[in-house]
Amino acid sequence: MHAVNDWIPDRAVGHDGAVFCDPRAAVAAPGQPDRLVSSPDDLRPSPDGYRVMALVLELVIKRVIRR
Q: Which domain holds residue 15?
């Protein structure tokens, strides 16, 4: 999982016009990037976590559209 997650942003940087957004980082536990804040099952974000992820994606999308 870590190898794939590290590969994705590196791949985006190498492609002109590609934009990388890491919404999972927005819901990761402080100092513990492999754990999610308030996850009901330690696998998926809570409903509030999904809202936070959506807000992060929305900000990135709006920034890209303004270019």
A: 2-66
